[in-house]
Amino acid sequence: MFGLKLNGADHSDEQQVARLARKIAASMTRPWTIMEVSGDLTQVLLRNNLFELLPPELSLVHGPGCAVASVPVHIFDRAIAVAQEPNVIFCAPAELLRIPGSSKDLLEVKAQGFDVRVVYSPLECIGIARSNPDSRVVLFDVGFENNVQMDALAVWQARRLGVNNFLLLSYHANLPPVVSSLLSDSNCMVNAVLGPGQICCVTGYESYEAIAEATGRPIVITGFEPVDILEGILKSVNMLEYGKVSVENQYKRAASRQGNLEVRALISEVFAPCEREWRGIGVVPMAGYALRPEFAAFDGHLAFEPSEPCSPEANGCISSQIWRGLKKPFECPLYGKACKPDSPQGATMVSADGTCAAYYKHQRARSLS
User: Fold this and answer.
1) Which of 70, 170, 178, 253 is surrounded by the fewest CB atoms within 10 Å?
2) Sign of dihedral through CA atoms 225, 231, 234, 238?
3) What is the rounded distance in angstroms from the CA atom of residue 160 to the CA atom of residue 166?
4) CB distance 123 to 153 below 8 Å
5) Cβ(72)–Cβ(309) under 8 Å?
């Protein structure tokens, strides 16, 4: 029934999903467009065929919810160049090794004999650096605050322990300024937003309150089970129908208004917000994280020469419009043709959590079943 893949948890209950879908349809008196801003939400929606349960008058669009997909190509080019520097041990999560730069990826660099290693925690790099005092150990990392907190801890520990050959080459993302930028655009057709519950577990959702007030759009912080998502959609529809503009928290079992204050303090001690280029969108003020001057000795961006910026998107790619909620992946002339996960042409296909990559994966899986 409904194609749901249940895992036995209460929040994946199939009958509850069906009831919520009926409530959403019954609550709507006009068409609405709701944007989710998390790649995880996109995956759950597609994996469980939730689109098929929703009324046709409700349009779900997908915002810039993947930090890896938003990284410009020249940042990967820089990482690839650093990995080939002498006396460098280059460390990164497995996913980042597969993301292409202009001409190659980090897996090819590793195959050429350079010391490129997969790590599962930034703290591993501290041990590697202590064991290799004559090498520079560089951690390349990208993510939202879930990743930022661990990198902050690694840098903080490196300073405490005097590990001076550890460097962080990060390109982390701060999502609220990007959401604010998209909703403030005069062409924006989005009526409400499903916010990322997993990030708000760390950051809280205070920053989204100002966005809701400034843009006149309700925002619902949402979890990642099918029931969570449909509850978030129902809350959004009800707020829209009654003209209510605020932030509501569907994910109360894990997220709170203030988030994890201890972790937030650690992040603020080590990192400061900075402008960041988002592939497919452009430069957004305060949309990234940079190491504070007190930690400059660990900043890989200062230790190595930058790469020249480039224009990565292929002619015809509409990833910018997809991330703004104006188009769906299947409306792109390159989707599934020139643009596939093994030959990405734009931001939304380059990572497994990118919108186009998620659509391609789940639609292909259904066609083969």
Assistant:
1) 253
2) negative
3) 12
4) yes
5) yes
Distance spanning both ends of the chain, measured CA to CA = 15
Single-letter amino acid, residue 360:
Y
Helix axes 226-241, 14-27, angle to 10 degrees: 10
For residues 245 and 96, what is the distance between their CA atoms, to the nearest angstrom? Answer: 38
What are the CA-CA distances from residue 318 to residues 280, 335, 336 (Å)? 8, 9, 13
Beta-carbon-side half-sphere exposure of residue 81 (alpha carbons within 13 Å): 15
Instruction: Tell me the whole-structure pTM to 2 decimals.
Output: 0.91
Beta strands at 282-291 and 271-278: parallel, antiparallel or unpaired: antiparallel
Asked if 170 contacts 142 with a C-beta cutoff of 8 angstroms, the reply is yes
Other beta carbons within 10 angstroms of residue 243's beta carbon come to 8
Contact 163, 7 (CB under 8 A): no
Cβ atoms of 134 and 101 within 8 Å: the answer is no
Residue 72: strand, helix, or coil: coil
Divide the 369 residues of the chain into consecutive groups of 10 and give the mean pLDDT of each group.
Answer: 41 84 97 95 92 95 92 94 97 96 95 98 98 98 96 98 98 97 95 97 97 98 96 98 98 97 98 95 96 98 81 81 92 94 91 91 64
